[in-house]
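Supplementary notes for students who missed Thursday's class. We covered one full example, reproduced here. Read the sequence, then the structure, then the short commentary at the end.
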Amino acid sequence: MRRSAILLAALAALAAGACSKHGGGSARIASDSDSVAYILGMNMGLTLQRMDSTLNVEAVCAGIREAFAGTTRLTMEEAKAYYLRYMNHTLPERARAHEEEFLAEVARTNRSFARTESGVTYRVAEVGDQELLPERTTDSVALRWVIRTTDGTVRYSSYERGDTLRTTLGELLPGVRESVKFIGKGGRIETWLPAAEAYGAGGDATLGIGPNATLRYEIELVDVGRNTGRKRVDLRR
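Structure (token representation):
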């Protein structure tokens, strides 16, 4: 909690050069210190845009000016509580509402897609061997996939990297685990995963996946190994 408060204060201080005294116009970069102030403000603006592009820039500037003037309308404790409530509740709720509308539209405009109770929205592109469906969490699976964001950006491609994921069904993301149960060995599926069934509020920095991201997976189920409990199935060959 204390760290969040420090962060709010630091962001306000660092971006002072980004807003004029009257909340508009272009800052004159007349000295090295002004250049640094502008750069810091620019970086803060880009960070805030990535966090929430709908933020009111004039309100941000007002907060900076008033922090420097010592005339803020909220105490730091009030600001911290409001900020945490917004980040932990308001923003995710907005994301979920937008996500539900988006996935419902996918299913509505393309009748080849179906939706599950969890919100996973999928289309079986190729039915595999129905005698080899992954069922138990300990069953081994070999997968190739492409992961895209809603704007079509590829975040990961097994085909480009020339690799195959070999793991157990239980180790997969919930939405992927649910999806591969619809296809057998050799099958392929296109599936949209709600954030709650993928990387959730934490995202995945390694893959460049942000918080509350809806993802599109194109999955090929290369192999399935049934774990009967008598011996461990190894797909490494």
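Commentary. The first helix runs from residue 2 to 14. Helices lie at 2-14, 32-51, 57-69, 76-109, 158-161, 174-180. If anything here is unclear, bring it to office hours.
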